[in-house]
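User: Can you model how NAP sits in this protein?
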Amino acid sequence: MPHDDTTLAGQVILVTGVTGGIGSATAHRLAEAGASLALAGRDATRVQRFAEQLNGPHLPLAFDVTDERAVSDAMDRAAAHFGRLDTLINVPGLSVPAKLVEMDVDDFDRTFDVNVKGMFLCSKHFIRQVDAQRGGLIVNISSVAGKAANPNAPAYCAAKAAMNMLANGLALQTREANVRISIISPGAVSTKGFWGDRPVPHEKFLKPGDVAEIIAGVLALPRHIVVHDVVFESWEFFKSK
Ligand SMILES: NC(=O)c1ccc[n+]([C@@H]2O[C@H](COP(=O)([O-])OP(=O)(O)OC[C@H]3O[C@@H](n4cnc5c(N)ncnc54)[C@H](OP(=O)(O)O)[C@@H]3O)[C@@H](O)[C@H]2O)c1
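Assistant: Here's the modeled complex, given as structure tokens:
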């Protein structure tokens, strides 16, 4: 994969989920490459603190990705601040492991709201900010769980599969608007927020920085290439299965 950080340096990128493992590593990676970032999370204080750590021309934004008005206002604010938006990285997601026959309907709704509706709303309001001449890119963080069901969290697998199909359909619709859509499907990644206290082999998992590196690679590609889906996992974890 040709990987040229100079392409990243000029980009205005909105990263959601920056208070989590993968979002924060991604924001760090893109800031190091010289991108201008709109940094989004739910909690204003935590996002502000994170933006101060990054110490660049970055804009902190606090909004819930499931709240359409808040998403729309935040996209307007980011585009007004930087003069344009080039790239959106849809990161937020959660999994509630449960047997479906015992699963709480609120947990089921939350799984689809954050993983699927959040991606839909952020994409919808980002696309209207893109300059069609210049073009845009949306990178969606999905999962290998969206490719193959597992017995631990079927609702999460279904939500990620829905997210993938939404992204594929959107990609066909946004060709005219010059917006490319990519899906990134990592295997297990060692983050506290996602796994909580579950007894999983963190030492064998991908690190958030590995996912950030793949995202940076996709963003650095020349615009005549569209990446549809990148599926990858930790070599150690793959060997141990
Ligand atoms: N970890 C893995 O093994 C793994 C593997 C494959 C794919 N993924 C996917 O990668 C993405 C990031 O996961 P992660 O491991 O970095 O998890 P994480 O550390 O728990 O981060 C999740 C992020 O999403 C944010 N978020 C949750 N609900 C939100 C909402 N309603 N509005 C706005 N933001 C919201 C969280 O904000 P708060 O900090 O406020 O909660 C946090 O910033 C998810 O889509 C996940 O499905 C993870």
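A couple of observations from the model: The chain has a mean pLDDT of 96. Residues 17, 19-23, 41-43, 64-66, 91-94, 114, 118, 141, 143, 186, 188-189, 191, 193-194 surround NAP (CB under 6 Å).
User: Helpful, thanks.
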